[in-house]
Amino acid sequence: MQHTQIELDQALETNLEIYTTEGNVNRPAIFIIPGGGYNQFMNKDTEKVALSFLTKGFQAIVVHYPIGEHKSYQEAKDTTVQAVEYVINHAAELNIDADKMGMIGFSAGGQIAAEYSTLADNALKFVILGYPVLGTAIDTNMGIQSEDIWELVTPMTTPTFIFGSINDTVTPYDKNILPYTSALFANHVSFELHEFSSGKHGISLANEYVADENGGEVYPEFAQWFSLALTWANGFLK
After folding, report:
1. Model confidence pTM above 0.70
2. Helices (H), 97-209
């Protein structure tokens, strides 16, 4: 495995953490947009997710967008565009098949990933959204000004896999996920939704690998999202 850090904007402290395996075959790639309410990035949303995808045949790119004193929804969107452009331009040296790329976003990162997936010229084959923020309801808490992503959905939006918990009080299903899936349905965008009866907001992989960051708790049912998402995503990479 190779681990490389690429600086995007020194002033905004944005960068890419790229995890790759060498070989003679270019591999699919997944961009990882971590959560953290624009205040922090946690290991369970970054390196641990990257390594999990690496073991399944993906090259993984963690996108560190502006947070803390630099937080900005618009700058986060711009950083994601820069990240994808960088990987496309360096795909050969990274052993990446630029025609087989996807993106996963958690919580606030899910909003950024979802917005990118609505761009008509995006480079994705699929997008995975984990308990995503999809509207403006918690902008004040996060200290940013965003938008209702369901208003951006068109028939060109990327096929989408969404997972979360019905116990989630941060991004509740009825006020957050439902308006988005309704927009996907109305625009005939392929999507799959899993709202688990266990779990809560922000538990990432929900397995033993991240238990130390989840108060020692493991959620076996919720953790199924990873294998379900892989099976679904691979259908778009054939």
Report:
1. yes
2. 108-117, 139-142, 178-186
Radius of gyration of the chain, Cα coordinates, nearest whole angstrom: 16
Q: What is the pLDDT of residues 198-231, one digit of tens each?
A: 999 999 999 999 999 999 999 999 999 999 999 9
In tens, the pLDDT along 138-176 reads 999 999 999 999 999 999 999 999 999 999 999 999 999
Six token digits for residue 176: 């957050």
* E strand segments, the chain: 2-9, 14-20, 27-33, 59-64, 96-106, 126-130, 160-165, 191-196
Q: Which of 156, 160, 153, 167 is nearest to 130 (CA)?
A: 160
DSSP 208: G
Sheet harboring 160-165: ordered strands across?
2-9, 14-20, 59-64, 27-33, 96-106, 126-130, 160-165, 191-196
pLDDT by residue (tens digit) across 5-54?
A: 999 999 999 999 999 998 889 999 999 999 999 999 999 999 999 999 99
β-bridge pairing 191-196 and 160-165: parallel
> What fold characterizes domain 2-234?
Rossmann fold (3.40.50)
